[in-house]
Each structure stands twice: as C-alpha cells, then as structure tokens.
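Hi team,

As requested, here is the filled-out complex form for the hypoxanthine run. I kept the field names the same as last time so the parser does not choke. Let me know if anything looks off before we queue the next batch.

— J.
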Amino acid sequence: MNTALIDTARKMPKAELHIHIEGSLEPELIFALAQRNAIVLDYPSIEALRAAYAFTDLQSFLDIYYAGASVLQTEQDFYDMTWAYLQRAHADNVLHTELFFDPQTHTARGVAFGVVVNGIHRALSDAHEKWDMSGGLIMCFLRHLSEEEAFVTLEQALPYRDKMIGIGLDSSERGHPPEKFARVFAQCRELGFHLVAHAGEEGPSAYIETALDLLQVERIDHGVRCIDDPVLMQRLAREKMPLTVCPLSNIKLCVFEKMLQHNLLTLLDAGLTITINSDDPAYFGGYMNDNFAAIVEALPVQRHHLQQLARNSFTAAFIAPDIKQKYLAQVDAFFAR
Ligand code: HPA
Ligand code: ZN
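And here is what came back:
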C-alpha cells in the first residue's frame, strides 16, 4: 500500500463536484430523523439498514436511497444532513463543493420546495462563514419522471433561483435518454443556469453525446462508458469536457466489478478532464478521501495524477475565474513542497 501517496491525496486541496446531498444521509442520522419526525422505518435497526446496502445495479440503490430520504421533513432536517456532509468534506480538505439535490423526491411527499432549498443553502452559508468553503447547489430533475413534471419543478424553483447555480439530471438512466429533457434544459439555459447531466454511468456512450448535443451540458456526471467510443473520447479530450467520476459508487453499483478494472486512469492519461467524487458517500463506502485512497490502492496512480485530479476539480468547478486561479495556485503550491 502506498501510504505516502494516500497521505498526499488526503491533504491536497480539492473540490467535490458530484455529491447527491440525500446520499450523504448516514444510517444513524436516518434513524435519528425518523425518531424526531415519528416515522416508522421498514428496518428494525441501524445495522439492518446498513446490511441492506448490497446493491446489484443503479435501480437497486435508488429504491433504498429514496426510502432513506423519506425521513427528511423540516428545514432543520435538511440543514442537519447538509451540515454533517460539510463537516466530512472539510475534514477531507475539500475547499469547494457543488451539491446536487432532488427536490421532486421531497415535493412528492408534500415537503415544500423552500423547506428543502433553504435548509441545504443555510448549511452551505455557514460553511462559507466558518471555513471560507465555497459551493453551490445544483437542482436535479429525476429522469424517470416526465419532462412536464420537470417543468413544474422548475416553476417551483424560480423564487429560489438565487440559491442555485445549476441544473442536473439524475435517477434511472436506462430508457430515459437526455433528449427526453431537451425543452426544459433549453429553458434552464435561457434562465442562466449552469447545466450538467448524468450520462454513461449505466447507460450507453450515445447518452453522453446527446447530453452534449441536445442538452448542451457543461459537465458529464460519470461518463465512464465513453470508453466504448474512441471518437467520443477524442471529442471529450479536445473540448476539455469534465467527467465527474465516482470510483466507489461505480464498484458498489457494479459498473465495474473491481477497482482494478476502473478506467479512470486510462481516461485521465488520454487527456480527459477527470475529477474524483463521492456520489452518495453514506451508501457507497466513503467520502472524498476514501475514494482517493481506494484508487491509489488499486490503480497505478502517481503523484502527477493526483495533482492533475486536484487541478481538474477546480478547473471544472462553476466558480469565478479569480477564485479558480486562487485555488489552482493553492494546488500547485501544495505539490511544489
Ligand atoms: N446515478 C443516478 N442517479 C443518482 C445517483 C447516481 O449515481 N445517485 C443519486 N441519484
Ligand atoms: Zn450521481
């Protein structure tokens, strides 16, 4: 085991760009919130819930992930969940974080949009005040629902648009191609939001292309199936299109059988703008530094790869150019030591 390299990865300044905040709900907090809100869970204990985290594919995870999110009722619940994640991120030397949230999971249960966004946003503001951590919220549309429902959600979001930096697309990928959401993404673009979409996680590489061409996204979340299309890979490299890769997630959801088979280093060496992220850390076995430790242990990662990954995380972030330069200088100063 390369402890020196893992130590470098742990200490280096980094940004996280692919974290579903509902996926940071640890079983302990699920049980605490269930008790606070007098909700009866289907699992008798924290251990029984954790034992159910044996996923075979994306859908088997999503079923349990949406069930876990059902304990979130009040603004304070959303605050507590987000604050718990931000403390973990801060401990992992994450200086900037962009959080996905799934409003439709909550509004469908009668929780108001404002309750969700205000709770999450207040935690992010506190992290900025306390640690100078920067960040933003990216609202995701659930792709297993209709585009019409996405339009309704966008309407609900408009009073809170100042609290959000972007729009994403998540949930069940297969059978729900990006083009299903072309009109609503066009409207989001006109509203000035940054755009991202999950593509090429379980779905085919063609979904990466349509996310780029029809949704005009600025980053691809996951995107690892681009390996099936060399021409697309060349395009991603040429256009410096960031892929927010989530190593532990990909193993837990059986996108790759073993970390040793993960293609992230191949993609990085081919010149793609790869970043490392935790996706749903409470469900997939760890936060940012756990993901870095896992790739360093399994793959022939070298020091220059870590510097590139740290740089990419800030290059791909939706932040003002002057702040981006400040962060990149911090990365380079760290690696110059
Ligand atoms: N993929 C798609 N949807 C999701 C994920 C994911 O990894 N995590 C939470 N929602
Ligand atoms: Zn994701």
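Two things worth flagging: The chain has one domain: 3-25+76-335. The two ends are 22 Å apart (CA to CA).

Thanks,
J.
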